[in-house]
Specification:
By secondary structure, the protein is mostly helical. The chain has eight helices and two strands. The protein is globular and about 40 Å long.
Length: 161
């Protein structure tokens, strides 16, 4: 599992973090895909746990549609953090619900036709922030989500019980 104590889980964004997120969001909205040079170093505190969690979930260079699942999760969280002016560590249940959608179709309406990675985003919310209000999210493939979060072996043992 993810070792949460390894990370700075401050809910507040530094002015540098917020500034770099705002630049990235403006780039994304203009159709850009690349990150400016200062972004990664400025956002490292937030990217480290996200990247570790995405590694745990197996979201490594997995391409679905036009964008990688990994990039989609990170970009959606950057947009949400910039919009809410707080780190994902501080997101309330309402913010997570808004981000994840009441079902897959609500998620697509909010994030656009290229929206993917909903299950990975749910898993990130669960693993890093303890979001467990899965009943708010409509129909989910719980076995697929469990495999992402707990691994195939653990999930299969639980299903057999």
């Amino acid at each position: 599992m993810i070792e949460l104590e390894r990370y700075d889980r401050s809910g507040e964004l530094s002015s540098d973090e917020l500034h770099n997120m705002q630049i990235l969001v403006a780039r994304f909205e203009a159709g850009g895909k690349g990150w400016h040079k200062a972004a990664r170093p400025a956002l490292q505190r937030l990217l480290q746990p996200l990247e570790a969690t995405l590694d745990h979930l197996g979201a490594v260079n997995t391409i679905k549609r036009k964008y990688t699942i990994r990039a989609t999760v990170i970009c959606l969280l950057i947009r949400a953090m910039a919009h809410n002016r707080q780190s994902f560590w501080a997101f309330s249940t309402d913010v997570w619900h808004e981000l994840l959608g009441s079902d897959y179709y609500a998620y697509v309406r909010v994030h656009g036709v290229t929206a993917n990675a909903r299950q990975q985003l749910i898993a990130v919310a669960y693993l890093l922030c303890g979001f467990n209000e899965l009943g708010l999210l409509g129909r989910l493939s719980y076995p697929a989500l469990a495999r992402k979060v707990f691994g195939t072996q653990s999930s299969m043992k639980s299903l057999r019980k």
